[in-house]
Amino acid sequence: MGLVGRNGVGKSTLLKIIRGQIAPTSGRVSVQGKVSSLEQTVQIGPEDTIADLFGVASHLALLCRAAAGDASGDELADADWTLEARLAASLERIGLQVGPEARLADLSGGQRTRAALAAVTFHDPDILLLDEPTNNLDRAGRDAVRALLQDWRGGAVVVSHDRELLEDMDAIVELTSLGASRYSGGWSAYRARKDIELEAAAHELESAERAAASARRRDQEKAERRDRRDSAGARQAKGGGMPRILLGARKNQAEVSGGAQAKSAERRQAELDAAAARARGLVEILQPFVVSLPPTGLASGRTVLRLDDVAAGYDPARPLIEGLSFAMTGPERIAILGPNGSGKSTLLKVIVGDLAPLRGQVTLSVPTATLDQRMDLLDPATTIRDNFLRLNPGATENACRAALATFQFRADAALMNVGTLSGGQMLRAGLACVLGGPKPPLLLVLDEPTNHLDLEAIQAVEAGLAAYDGALLVVSHDQTFVAALGIQQTISLDPVSR
């Protein structure tokens, strides 16, 4: 089961409730079988090893003593002679080529994630709880996680924004501020159902608003007819055409009837307005993010970037990249692919001028902006508005507010300090400041922008980039995200070939 929803809605909290770390404020949780869980961040000590992570360090030490002839008879009786083989098989299954003595601090974030995933499956639990298992993983790591879950015969609850991984789920559960909704099938089936719900919600809103407006018109017409009758009665009374007692009775009856009708109309109108508000709230929750951006004016034949026989890295004797040449022309979209450690981020630093190439020539010919998961171009101590005006000198206050509203930072939301934003808000603010100005950059460089973002935030980023007509250079392990960008050329960096 895939568990999806906005950041902060409670997905990780729900996993903690399931595994008994915190108690629910109401209701009851019943778990049958053994549960094993993987958290987003693998907490480690400076000397912790793979064996410590698996909880088998003492058992491996016993096998070492037994091999050296130092174990007692009682210890030998307790020895697990299959442990080393099972441990190696578990690590191999997740594509990790390390021994049990390897220190976790010496591994990359992606390697630690793989090791932790192997550890949670090692003791054959009945249920896996996985919190963002593919974060920090390269293409091979993501494929290994998918393969492991496809072969898994127990239950699994997977919190993830990885749409490829979610495609393999038997069901998707979406958490929102309204509660939880379950959808059978994987990601595509969930999205298809959500699109139907959006259309139905929009139709319900239109009908509710039409009914409320129609009732308001009818009540107004009734009130106007009543006023005309009352005016006519008053004129007749002045003319002396009706006994005083009958006039008084009719007046009292009109007042009682009018008051009852007014109360009934108010009650009916309040019910219809409430129905419209409920429908409107549902549409706002489901409504996708749409962005409109000013054109960059990048000509199709203009040279944007050229690399000629570039070598890059931090050690001239052991470059991460060797003999790389390519060019970007016009609004081309290029993805740089490769496993962790192949030099992708290093290459981006060389391209934008943060790192000099070891050899070769880099020619960057157009104004460029870089966005990554840290959003270094934004000042965390100031507001989104102030960052926009700093990055777009000459922009008016009205233009600033209009651009930020396009990226859903309206009114007081534009005055939030960048340091208080979530990951998704941070990236959206970066896009607003870079792409929302009167002169967007002609080249946008993205370095793993979707790490730690929820699905709604990723789709917002995709919407913003779909509206951008400049050149795009992106590094990402999220294949679905890359495919959504309309990539025209891929450059693969393979450390094995160097």
TrEMBL record:
Disordered: region residues: 209-250
InterPro entries per the UniProt record, alphabetical: AAA+_ATPase, ABC_transporter-like_ATP-bd, ABC_transporter-like_CS, ABCF, P-loop_NTPase
Compositional bias per record (Basic and acidic residues), positions renumbered to this chain: 216-232
Organism: Alsobacter metallidurans
Pfam assignment, any one: ABC_tran
CDD domains associated with the record: ABCF_EF-3
PROSITE patterns: ABC_TRANSPORTER_1, ABC_TRANSPORTER_2
Keywords assigned: ATP-binding, Nucleotide-binding, Repeat
Name of protein: ABC transporter
Family per similarity comment: Belongs to the ABC transporter superfamily.
GO molecular function: ATP binding; ATP hydrolysis activity
Domain ABC transporter intervals: 1-203, 305-493
